[in-house]
């Protein structure tokens, strides 16, 4: 496909009114100004983007003179946040061009023409500029034809683009998945060749790209399959690469394929849960055993929880995110039958914790769907979910802190503080789990008094 530097006129892409207002003010002051980036790409494909960025020939100091309300969001990089009359902040960046790169970051200098700015973009579909006043499209690299043909290719030489910033390999996989695009052969070959160098990326940048896949790509398995096919999975997530080719039971698909089905079955609005789903069976690769033709994965949930902890710490997730995912992976196989006696259900609720209840069931339901479980199995699990939610809603004691008495009452009975407190309270919780009606102050005080008399 031949790129063209000709400027075409397109219909109005309907940006927010203040985008046009900002552009007009800059243009009237003599500064060429265009909208650029993902908003232009998405609008050209029929989307309704919310975040619009502008690129201009104006330098930061000139922007701040023209607009009363500005925020210095990245002046050293040429970016000024301009507060529109609607109260929204729009990022306006001086045209730039790269002069030096190290595979992670680029050193840039200011430029005078939009084409120089578009030259430094990663992919042709992101190297399109739209003029908010004249409605002209500037497309020197053929991004619009590539959008129409659903082809993803780099601006210029793909090997050079990936050397400039290795994160572009991951971005390529995400964009191809998100927009259902075919990656150009040269771009794909260069991405595969660059995959071993991804270890030089910071953990934070890898984490954020992975989360964008889980949030933006529907279904995420499209991009995640390309992670494996390109060699990226083996480099960045070898624990998941190890699941590929491991049969998920006799005559069934492999663990990696099943994992992708589970991730797909969870809402993109729950990226944290999708992350737990991505790791939920990671322990199977090292726990698979086969005896007499029967395949089992003893303690794979515990092994998977340990793997989830290691992967998420390596990618520098927050402690809260790690704790949640690790707990969900550890508990994803442990649900009792729908007709379990009430005390059995309560003890299970104590183990998983009420705040994890809904996500444990969401993950389990996704797992069942991935296995192709019949409607009866899914209905049984939903019935158990309803029972569990009713139990929590009625305030059933599930933790020591839920008991009607505590350390204060034990001191009132003349018991000295010490290990005995914990033993007594744990015993009371067991008895209250069997019969929640016992959780009354006087009743529990009497039980303790009889125990120590």
From TrEMBL:
<keyword id="KW-0694">RNA-binding</keyword>
<feature type="domain" description="tRNA nucleotidyltransferase/poly(A) polymerase RNA and SrmB- binding">
    <location>
        <begin position="181"/>
        <end position="241"/>
    </location>
</feature>
<dbReference type="InterPro" id="IPR006674">
    <property type="entry name" value="HD_domain"/>
</dbReference>
<comment type="similarity">
    <text>Belongs to the tRNA nucleotidyltransferase/poly(A) polymerase family.</text>
</comment>
<dbReference type="GO" id="GO:0046872">
    <property type="term" value="F:metal ion binding"/>
</dbReference>
<dbReference type="Pfam" id="PF12627">
    <property type="entry name" value="PolyA_pol_RNAbd"/>
</dbReference>
<keyword id="KW-0460">Magnesium</keyword>
<dbReference type="Pfam" id="PF01743">
    <property type="entry name" value="PolyA_pol"/>
</dbReference>
<dbReference type="GO" id="GO:0000049">
    <property type="term" value="F:tRNA binding"/>
</dbReference>
<keyword id="KW-0479">Metal-binding</keyword>
<dbReference type="GO" id="GO:0000166">
    <property type="term" value="F:nucleotide binding"/>
</dbReference>
<dbReference type="InterPro" id="IPR043519">
    <property type="entry name" value="NT_sf"/>
</dbReference>
<dbReference type="InterPro" id="IPR002646">
    <property type="entry name" value="PolA_pol_head_dom"/>
</dbReference>
<dbReference type="InterPro" id="IPR032828">
    <property type="entry name" value="PolyA_RNA-bd"/>
</dbReference>
<dbReference type="GO" id="GO:0016779">
    <property type="term" value="F:nucleotidyltransferase activity"/>
</dbReference>
<feature type="domain" description="Poly A polymerase head">
    <location>
        <begin position="34"/>
        <end position="153"/>
    </location>
</feature>
<dbReference type="InterPro" id="IPR050264">
    <property type="entry name" value="Bact_CCA-adding_enz_type3_sf"/>
</dbReference>
<keyword id="KW-0819">tRNA processing</keyword>
<protein>
    <submittedName>
        <fullName>Putative nucleotidyltransferase with HDIG domain</fullName>
    </submittedName>
</protein>
<keyword id="KW-0548">Nucleotidyltransferase</keyword>
<keyword id="KW-0808">Transferase</keyword>
<keyword id="KW-0547">Nucleotide-binding</keyword>
<dbReference type="InterPro" id="IPR006675">
    <property type="entry name" value="HDIG_dom"/>
</dbReference>
<dbReference type="Pfam" id="PF01966">
    <property type="entry name" value="HD"/>
</dbReference>
<dbReference type="GO" id="GO:0008033">
    <property type="term" value="P:tRNA processing"/>
</dbReference>
<feature type="domain" description="HD">
    <location>
        <begin position="256"/>
        <end position="337"/>
    </location>
</feature>
